């Protein structure tokens, strides 16, 4: 199995990778500031911590594959995350999203779910989408 | 300040124990042990406690109440849902919303309250020998729970998201109706899915569970039922893990429950998984099989006016038209409803990424969304999914989507696009990774015809998990009897949505309440047992 090649804990430091992926996935939605991107990444990390161990394990495997240089180049086609360009990352996401392999599509779906939940749960995201936030209860 | 009935009950001395605080193993005894506190467990707990029985309730999730319900998705999903509202089937093709706190899914559901459709009951009698499941015989039990939980057709105007479904359908001559809701003094906020902050929703959390606790029932939270220990054809004890403070992992301590009678009410997926872990007799391999989801597909539209789908009662209008355009056992039919629209739910469901995704999100106030819930389980090509166990013993549902179901998905996308354009939408987006916003019905229909119906391209979700411990008179094709008793075990009952031998064809909460209220009353000796056929 592809995912069996990976294997580091989801909770270990994946900051550079998550920043890079979030920056591209949220292009047009997130202010171009370090602060906003940090908030998104923190949201992702909190979301992962709330998942059951078996699911955290799967995400750990996915992240492992995307971090390990050989598999990162082979499967995602990008160099080190800290230096990957937006175009490279977008191409990787698009390839996985439209792949004929359900394994790649499920990897993309996991990233999509985590990044979108990580950012749109945050109040900072709401003015940009016209969401007023929860009502005040008198 | 809104009064919190849970805080008040705890102050009155309810026996509620958070197992993550255990400092040793514990053993408790009871007349009845109930695993799960949702629609089935809650209903049974009240009836059995009022009958004077000593009841112990086991809940894997935490006890949360109105003081904790801040209408924030980022808090609610990890706290109140299985797998942070992102539970998926084995091949990741379907996202499942299922509750996981005291009150189960009733704490987070959208309040839609329907009796079991008569055609579903007819099918059960014909195919599963459930002679006792007639509309007439169940009517008093549905009525009892409708009264208990203040269910009534929503009497305020529908919010614009629901109103658009009615408007579009009417323009096409498709009938719609108003949804009955289990609310009392509803503030019409729209946040039912994050735990009702005003206690208006008459969930198990604020009705039957407090009643049972007032009668002396004991509730153990953050307690995972691991396995029943069997002795001959009886369950002797229930072994539970006290979870750690994360609420996700077993801690060092256990809870053992000795009881005369055991009730599995963890919901479909969790109840069959508990029985599989227990090595319960499974002579015909039916345990965990025939699990149904009402596989649901989604159509988004952009309306000229503000819809604000995040505000107001989330579900108040429905149409059963497409359940009846073909026979029950013909091509799959679907029920139309709308979902509430909040940022995380919307952003995770909206396909694509980058500016395409951002542009859709930016139109959130104008977004109108319809969902089609497909009625699975009534056809030989719709046998549902099957619950298995991961290496760590946690459940995993395998639900392959058959071409029969995909055919329904395509028809449903077309019906929804038609209704949305008829309601005045200027753009419709079938929720599929390969779809593009369509600006006319023709364009939408052409596109839908060409969309590849495959998992992880077509978005499929479910909020209704049913089956896995199917009721029936024949043990070869079912797991439990019509009265809820496990075929091969004398003192084990299944009282939840896992007992349904097909899907319901409607939001299932009232089906569970009604059927469990009858079976729990019979178990307590408060209602006549069914006549033997």
Commentary on this structure:
- The complex is a heterodimer of chains A (138) and B (533).
- Chain A is an all-alpha fold and 138 residues long.
- Helix content of chain A is 59%, strand content 0%.
- Chain A is built from six helices and no strands.
- Chain B has 533 residues and is of the alpha/beta class.
- Chain B contains 13 helices and 23 strands.
- The interface between A and B is large, with 45 and 53 residues.
Features of this protein?
heterodimer, A: about 140 residues, mainly alpha, B: about 525 residues, alpha/beta, eight-stranded mixed β-sheet, about 25% helix
Offer a concise description of the structure:
Chain A has 138 residues and is an all-alpha fold. Chain A has six helices and no strands.
Question: Topology, please?
Answer:
The complex is a heterodimer of chains A (138) and B (533).
Chain A: H1 15-25, H2 34-49, H3 53-67, H4 69-76, H5 86-97, H6 102-120
Helix pairs in contact in A: 1-2, 1-5, 1-6, 2-6, 5-6
Chain B: H1 5-12, E1 15-18, E2 26-35, H2 39-50, E3 55-58, H3 73-80, E4 87-88, E5 94-96, H4 118-128, H5 135-148, E6 151-153, H6 160-171, E7 177-178, E8 180-182, H7 208-214, E9 218-221, E10 223-231, E11 234-243, E12 250-264, H8 270-277, E13 291-292, E14 296-302, E15 317-318, E16 334-337, H9 343-349, H10 354-361, E17 367-374, E18 386-389, E19 395-398, H11 403-422, E20 427-430, H12 441-450, E21 460-462, E22 466-467, E23 492-494, H13 509-523
Parallel strand pairs in B: 1-9, 2-3, 2-12, 3-9, 5-21, 12-23
Antiparallel strand pairs in B: 4-5, 6-8, 7-15, 10-11, 11-12, 13-22, 14-17, 14-20, 16-17, 18-19
């Amino acid at each position: 199995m592809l995912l069996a090649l990976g294997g580091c804990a989801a909770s270990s430091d994946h900051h550079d990778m998550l920043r890079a992926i979030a920056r591209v996935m949220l292009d047009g939605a997130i202010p171009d500031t370090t602060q906003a991107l940090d908030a998104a990444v923190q949201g992702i990390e909190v979301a992962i911590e709330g998942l059951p161990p078996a699911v955290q394990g799967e995400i750990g495997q996915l992240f492992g594959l995307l971090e390990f240089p050989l598999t990162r180049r082979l499967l995602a086609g990008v160099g080190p995350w800290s230096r990957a360009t937006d175009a490279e990352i977008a191409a990787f996401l698009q390839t996985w999203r439209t792949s004929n392999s359900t394994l790649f599509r499920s990897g993309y779906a996991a990233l999509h779910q985590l990044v979108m939940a990580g950012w749109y749960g945050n109040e900072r995201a709401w003015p940009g989408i016209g969401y007023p936030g929860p009502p005040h209860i008198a | 300040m809104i009064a919190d009935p849970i805080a008040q009950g705890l102050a009155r001395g309810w026996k509620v124990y958070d197992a993550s605080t255990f400092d040793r193993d514990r053993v408790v005894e009871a007349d009845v042990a109930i695993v799960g506190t949702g629609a089935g467990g809650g209903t049974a707990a009240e009836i059995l406690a009022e009958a004077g029985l000593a009841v112990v309730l086991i809940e894997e999730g935490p006890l949360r109440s109105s003081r904790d319900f801040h209408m924030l998705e980022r808090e609610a999903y990890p706290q109140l849902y299985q797998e942070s509202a992102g539970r998926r089937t084995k091949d990741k093709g379907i996202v499942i919303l299922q509750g996981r706190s005291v009150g189960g899914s009733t704490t987070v559901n959208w309040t839609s309250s329907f009796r079991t459709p008569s055609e579903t009951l007819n099918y059960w009698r014909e195919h599963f020998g459930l002679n006792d499941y007639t509309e007439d015989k169940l009517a008093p039990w549905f009525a009892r729970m409708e009264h208990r939980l203040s269910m009534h057709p929503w009497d305020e105007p529908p919010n614009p998201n629901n109103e658009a479904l009615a408007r579009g359908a009417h323009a096409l001559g498709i009938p719609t109706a108003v949804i009955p809701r289990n609310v009392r003094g509803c503030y019409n906020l729209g946040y039912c899915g994050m735990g009702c902050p005003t206690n208006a929703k008459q969930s198990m959390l604020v009705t039957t569970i407090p009643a049972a606790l007032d009668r002396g029932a004991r509730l153990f939270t953050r307690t995972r039922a691991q396995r029943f220990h069997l002795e001959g054809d009886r369950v002797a004890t229930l072994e539970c893990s006290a979870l750690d403070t994360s609420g996700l992992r077993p801690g060092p301590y256990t809870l053992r429950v000795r009881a005369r009678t055991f009730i599995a009410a963890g919901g479909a997926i969790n109840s069959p998984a508990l029985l599989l872990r227990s090595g319960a007799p499974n002579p015909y391999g039916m345990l965990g099989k025939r699990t149904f989801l009402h596989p649901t597909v989604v159509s988004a539209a952009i309306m000229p006016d503000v819809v604000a789908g995040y505000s107001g009662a989330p579900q108040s209008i429905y149409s059963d038209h497409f359940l009846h355009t073909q026979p029950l056992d013909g091509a799959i039919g679907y029920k139309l409803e709308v979902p509430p629209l909040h940022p995380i739910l919307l952003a995770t469901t909206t396909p694509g990424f980058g500016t395409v995704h951002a542009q859709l999100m930016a139109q959130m106030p104008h977004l109108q969304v319809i969902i089609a819930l497909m009625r699975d389980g009534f056809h030989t090509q719709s046998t549902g999914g099957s619950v298995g166990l991961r290496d760590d013993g946690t459940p995993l549902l395998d639900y392959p989507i058959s071409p029969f179901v995909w055919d329904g998905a395509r028809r449903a996308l077309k019906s929804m696009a038609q209704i949305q354009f008829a309601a005045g939408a200027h753009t419709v987006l079938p929720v599929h990774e390969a779809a593009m916003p369509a600006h006319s019905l023709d364009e939408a229909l052409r596109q839908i015809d060409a969309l590849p119906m495959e998992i992880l391209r077509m978005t499929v979700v479910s909020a209704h998990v049913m089956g896995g411990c199917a009721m029936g008179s024949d043990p070869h094709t079912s797991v439990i009897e019509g009265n809820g008793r496990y075929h091969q075990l004398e003192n084990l009952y299944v009282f939840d949505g896992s007992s349904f031998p097909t899907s319901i064809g409607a939001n299932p909460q009232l089906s569970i309440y009604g059927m469990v209220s009858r079976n729990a009353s019979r178990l307590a000796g408060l209602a006549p047992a069914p006549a033997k056929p």
